[in-house]
Amino acid sequence: MAANGYDHDFVELFNRGTQATSLVGWTLQVRAVGTSTWITWPLSGSIAGNSYVLVRLGQAANPVDGNDLPTPYLTGTAVDIENGTSVALVSSTSAIAPDTCPTGPVDLFGAYIAPCKEAAGFFGGPGYNEAFGRGNVCVDTNDNGADFMSEPISTSNPPRTSSTALHTCP
Predict the structure, then answer these.
(1) Residue 53 domain flag
(2) Is residue 131 helix, strand or coil?
(3) What does the alpha-carbon distance between residue 169 and residue 111 come to, in Å, rounded to a whole number?
(4) What is the pLDDT of residues 7-51, one digit of tens each?
(5) Span 116-121, average pLDDT
(6) Domain count for the chain
(7) What is the phi-psi region of residue 135: left when phi exceeds 0, alpha when psi lies from -120 to 50, beta otherwise?
(8) Cα–Cα–Cα angle for 143, 147, 149, nearest 5°?
(9) Percent with pLDDT over 90 in the chain
(10) How distant, in Å, are the alpha carbons of 84, 121, 124, 163 from that of 52?
(11) In which band, very low, low, confident or very high, does the pLDDT at 135 lie, cut at 50, 70 and 90?
(12) Whole-angstrom Cα distance, residue 129 to residue 158?
């Protein structure tokens, strides 16, 4: 997530299963620090097994280098992912209630002072030309501090899309 060095923020979704997973009826929901409401938009299509899809969000806060984001599978609403933003992948079309954190999301990410996160959350933020990334896409411990790290993003290490090579989990 986040897009330092790219023209838009983004979220990568990964299906660690071997069968396609439908995204119909699912939503990606974002809540910035200091706000009470979740920005919600429906997802569509599916993610093939062992594959990624790229969701393009709003214009990056720091698009100085402005590399074009690879072609996304889905496009979300204009929202800026910053330190303190919570992002929830929810298998429902219902919006998360204001001033609450989701219970039972498919996945939840919160950085630094985010209002909602798994366990202690991820501390620190990505530097320039870095993004928050899942260290091991095959494991979800439900602890953002253990599951995420800052990782370099560049034209030689671009965001992953549906055309990225399959990644098989053990």
Answers:
(1) yes
(2) strand
(3) 26
(4) 777 888 999 999 999 999 999 998 888 889 998 888 999 999 999
(5) 78
(6) 1
(7) alpha
(8) 125
(9) 26
(10) 25, 23, 25, 8
(11) confident
(12) 10
Q: Tokens 């989990």 belong to which residue?
A: 169
Task: Identify the three-state secondary structure at position 47.
Answer: strand
pTM, two decimal places:
0.84
CATH number at residue 105: 2.60.40
Find out whether 111 and 117 touch, Cβ atoms under 8 Å: yes
Is 165 part of any domain? no
Q: Confirm if 110 and 121 have CB atoms less than 8 A apart.
A: yes
Q: Which of 82, 83, 111, 110 is nearest to 96 (CA)?
A: 110
Q: Are 28 and 57 in contact (CB under 8 A)?
A: no
Please state, rounded to an integer, the average pLDDT across all residues of the chain: 80
Q: How far apart are alpha carbons 47 and 19 in whole angstroms?
A: 9
Geometric angle at alpha carbon 57, from 134 and 143, rounded to 5°: 25
Residue 150, helix vs strand vs coil? strand
Query: Has residue 12 been placed in a domain?
Result: yes
Each residue's pLDDT tens digit, 66-96: 678 888 777 766 566 666 788 899 999 999 9
